[in-house]
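Friendly challenge for the regulars: who can give me the structure tokens for this chain first? No prize, just bragging rights.
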Amino acid sequence: MKDLVIVGSAAENTFVVDIAHHLHQHEDYLDIISLKTFLNTEFCPRFIIDEELTDRVGRKLEGKEVLIVSTSFALLSRDELAMRNFLVARAAKDNGADRVVLLEPDLFYSAQDRGPRPEHGVTDFERSEADYKKFDGQPFSARLYAELLKYSGVDEVITVHVHSESVRRIFMDRFSGHFHDLRPAELYADYMTDSDIVNVDRLVLCSPDQGARRFVHDVRAHLGRRTLPIIGMEKRRNGEHAVELTLSADSESFTAEIAGKDVVILDDMVRTGGTVVECAEMVRRFGPRRILFFVTHFYSSREGRNNLNNPLISEVVTTSSIPTILNRDMQGRLRHKMVVLRIARWIAAYIQKLRDPTTEALAKPLYKEDMSSKNPRWRGTMGPLFAQASD
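First reply, four minutes later:
Bragging rights claimed.
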């Protein structure tokens, strides 16, 4: 197995530090790579080598596998970070690295998963004229990003909970199957079971749209409760932000099963929160005890924070795939009901097994719970809400 070198594309990124720690790299990644910017603003990474040694110039990374950890970062745009990924990957390959792996928990440009023509993307639904028009004049960015990563020297990509089947297919094709889309179904199931956030004996799972259906079933499978009710919704957009939800005709369970139970809505990402609130409004009519929202990628926006601050939603659980959400200012008024599961250990455990299937598994839990002291559960109590659950 090749020696692993872990670096980031931006300085002072705690997610990179956490991944390196869990994969036992004791050297600070900023002592391995210099992330310098010239006076003309051009970025030029440089793997740090012994300046006095002149042998094997340009080959110092031979026999090594370079893992680039890339996440959203407060001080840099995604466009800047993407360009840094290309240059760090090229620096690794131009200096002899045998293999380059990109770990990007929230895959850049994955929202532009198709373009304005039939050959632009493969979907699991028949595209309408309106869908083609939606992308008219835009680039097919997801495919371009995959191609540029490949051309830059990236051999393998690891990400978390990709929204689009089209993106999965693009990356699987471009990287010849070396594309890993980690789904946090087991992670969420462990958290529901091990914490006091829900009563797992009186639980209903809810899919807010067709796209989330498979993931919700995966969570139920990891909970080990085949008879756990799942409510499925159908979503129809009426404009840019307005949505209309109805109970899906193929929903496994019915709204009569909601009364007095904890309902967990699960989705891959949230930007405005409109769909989630609409879903919670529907669920509320049938008398649940509490409604919670689990979402993998939280894009913090003023509109999203305001919408999710709706008292119908008791708690919001997300992951650190977009690490800025750990900042209490980014949580805003949601801090009193938000939990962030730090997932660096979970991802590191996957990479460890990927590189050596015989390695001993990291002990659970594979997440670290992070919440504000404003959250009633911060001191291990749910207060009046938890008292109701035990009645």
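The first helix runs from residue 14 to 22. The CA atoms of residues 220 and 226 lie 7 Å apart. Your move, everyone else.
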